Amino acid sequence: MSTLHNRLAAETSPYLLQHADNPVQWQPWDQASLALARQQNRPILLSIGYSACHWCHVMAHESFEDPDVAAVMNRLFVNIKVDREERPDLDQIYQTAHQMLTRRSGGWPLTLFLAPDGTPFFGGTYFPKQPRYGLPGFADLCRRAAEAFDNRREDLEAQNAELRRGLAGTLPAAVEDVAGFDPSPLATAGQLLARSFDHDHGGFGGAPKFPHPTDLAFLLGRSDPAMRRMALTTLTRMSEGGIYDQIGGGFCRYSVDERWEIPHFEKMLYDNGPLLALSADAWAQSGDPLYARVAEETAAWVMREMRSPEGGYCSSLDADSEGEEGKYYVWDRSELQQLLTPQESALAQRHWGFDGPPNFEGHHWHARVAGEIASEEIPLLASARLKLFAAREKRIRPGRDDKVLTSWNALMIEGMAHAARVFGRPAWLVSAQRAMDCIRRTMWHEGRLLATAKDGRAHLDAYLDDHAFLLAALLELMQAEFRSEDLTFAIELADTLLHRFEDREAGGFFFTAHDHEVLIHRPKTGHDNATPAGNGVAAFALQRLGHLLGEGRYLAAAEKTLRLFWPEISRSAAGFGSLLLALEEALTPPDIIVLRGPAQSMTEWRRGLGASPRRLVLALPNGISGLPGSLAKPESDQVNAWVCRGVTCLAPTSNLADLIY
Asked: Is residue 267 part of a domain?
């Protein structure tokens, strides 16, 4: 029997801490556990999950908390538990490897058996304790995997070599013959999205349905009304559906049906930041009060439930409470009748669909917009919502993963700052600035960015997404309210991106830094997933900062990134939304507008210029010093605007009407 003990108690991840008392002798992914596997020539059982994951909890309760199953695992493997949110590098690599091994898409929990060198030779996702769902029992599977490692070593080594070649083949190849870019992939992407668009319910494809905010942002920015309509229809159906928390605000991760009616109830920070920004832009385009309400409620939810004491944003809320998925969110009809007046109850039942058959597990109701209300009924519905919210607050809450992730915070900072600009909400901006200050204070040390923190303890080298998303967030923050420290931080991050992540020969950016630990693969992808691709966001943000500062290094790095991925984008534009947004600005750079003058005189200019995605507006009040040359415009007693459109800069103007177009 192994002399190991469970080492997770010293970790910061709430997910890892959930497993610290398991009888499984879990090890974190570190050099000690990897060295042990090599020294003992024992295979590794790698389990990757996250704290809000329902099926991760199921597998933990069934197998990892069972002493008999744990004994099998401890005898046969070095068991390593990974939080996919803290180690997206490992998750990305091993999800890709799983897909190559099984020819099936992955997910969580991810369960892989690795050779001591880290190469996987067998695996899957969730496995039950006893055989069911066409899956073997987990303990039996462990024995078979260990037997294969012991008795079929040559076959496995050949398979491992093939897998490593396959992983290497996923890297985009450097090309020399890209003469220039053209807008054809933008049209192609719109056509591909139109083909899979669900005209009845919005969204793309069938169940399960995910928000795909990067695709929605791409569509919302098209000049074609039909393209914009796809985005607005999707946002409307989501905002009216059960994927949106009609009582407390905020979006869940995905819908299990094609109608957005019943979600998987976990709420992730990374979805809600972009969806908050999209709601603001949808309102700016359409004036529909639905989007304003959703933005208001989502921002309120974030500030109420997701802020850490230090000012950053927490990662997620669990799908489960009291061991049941969705229990916190669903209702019995009798509760409405007890909590509400007869008039409120009748309206709530009609509006949220409680007057029809139960829609969750046969005997509960989950609220979604099922019936229209008249304008005079809005106050009555608001009263009902407040009462239901107050009653729900007394329930046992889902668990909150309170670690602060740099990349996910950046997405929420950007969304909150953008919504603050669109709606003129200073409190939202203050929240975003506090979160950025928390990241800068906690995660940024002597030119190195860290990925995660909990209770003030930060660790793990940051990844491409952390740097790129944070740079984009800083550009949004500076437009909402210019602070010199944000510009300084943006320049430092951009320089770090180039120094530590750029592939100077082939172009583009690796997901891990040049001095990151050596893994079986080093990804460099341009595809969006649940979050936008780091390469796309890096190219977009570097272009904008390059135009703003006149810095050729940033523009060149962005162009090389687009050049690297151009063959893939040209072959199939699907899934490249963030790179397509960068391509669009490479073809037609945004208008750069720099305002200078008295701070109190800029309010009208800010309101008049709005928050167009195709403009970058910086308002620099008199008194700010130390600005770089491109921004160091002369002070005056009235607001003056300097405008550059592409490579053409216009004469300064003091007439706001010249810029409203």
From this structure: no
Q: What is the pTM of this model?
A: 0.96
**What single-letter DSSP state applies at residue 6?**
-
Instruction: Name beta bridge partners: 640.
Output: 596
Percent of the chain with pLDDT over 90: 93
Residues 445 and 513 in one domain: yes
Among candidate residues 571, 538, 581, 562, the one with its CA nearest the CA of residue 215: 581
Backbone angles phi, psi at 345, to 5 degrees: -60, -45
Query: Hey, CA dihedral for 437, 439, 441, 445, is it positive or negative?
Result: negative
Asked whether residue 461 falls in the same domain as residue 363, the answer is no
Angle ∠(311,532,229) on CA atoms, nearest 5: 105
* Omega cis (within 30) before 208: yes
Asked if 109 and 124 touch (Cβ cutoff 8 Å), the reply is no
d(CA 197, CA 204): 4
- Specify the amino acid at residue 310: E
Distance CA 535, CA 503 (A): 11
pLDDT, tens digit, 9 for 90 and up, residues 98-108: 999 999 999 99
Residue 181: both structure tokens together:
């870019």
426 or 2, which is more confident? 426
> Domain check: are 389 and 502 in the same one?
no
What would the pLDDT profile of 542-590 be if each residue is shown by its tens digit? 999 999 999 999 999 999 999 999 999 999 999 999 999 999 999 999 9
- In the chain, the number of structural domains is 4
d(CA 629, CA 657): 27
